[in-house]
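User: Sequence recovery, please. Input:
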């Protein structure tokens, strides 16, 4: 049995990962924002109370991350999955950018995964686990498209941050994977 922490666990890929790990009988900490629609996640958690615990945590709030880290301090984490993310603002081209929306996309999609990885690194080390961050091909520097630019920039940034983290943690035997 593995212990898995998943951010953005209330819908889409995050919820599918929760269900897959619980189906394997792994213990899952499913992290969601307090304001998220978590109806389906809560119903699933109620049917699997031995395997899943829903935890409220806004990945862009260092105080909330710290609170959850203290709560899980003694819990080795085999797999940490940074899945939480946003698509960015309505206006996000190079000539028509919502700068506050760009900053929010960078905070949630780029900076938060690094904060989460560092906060729970002692847990991952204790389990000799791994860190996985969900990214996107849209973060590739090869793409010339300017649509969804805030999202693309945030994914390029998280890719670079995670590559840096991977290089630093490799000597310690902690794999850091970036997947899309």
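Assistant: Recovered sequence (180 residues):
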């Amino acid at each position: 049995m593995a212990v898995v922490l998943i951010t953005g666990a209330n819908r889409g890929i995050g919820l599918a990962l929760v269900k897959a790990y619980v189906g394997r009988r792994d213990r899952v900490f499913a992290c969601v924002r307090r304001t998220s629609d978590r109806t389906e996640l809560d119903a699933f958690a109620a049917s699997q109370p031995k395997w899943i615990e829903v935890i409220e945590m806004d990945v862009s709030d260092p105080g909330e991350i710290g609170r959850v880290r203290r709560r899980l301090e003694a819990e080795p984490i085999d797999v940490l999955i940074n899945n939480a993310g946003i698509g960015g603002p309505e206006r996000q081209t190079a000539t028509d950018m919502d700068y506050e929306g760009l900053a929010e996309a960078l905070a949630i999609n780029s900076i938060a995964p690094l904060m989460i990885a560092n906060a729970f690194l002692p847990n991952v080390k204790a389990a000799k686990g791994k860190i996985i961050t969900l990214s996107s091909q849209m973060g590739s520097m090869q793409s010339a498209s300017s649509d969804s630019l805030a999202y693309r920039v945030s994914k390029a940034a998280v890719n670079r941050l995670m590559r840096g983290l991977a290089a630093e943690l490799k000597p310690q035997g902690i794999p850091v994977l970036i997947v899309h």
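The beta strands are 3-7, 27-32, 52-56, 79-82, 92-93, 96-97, 130-134, 176-179.
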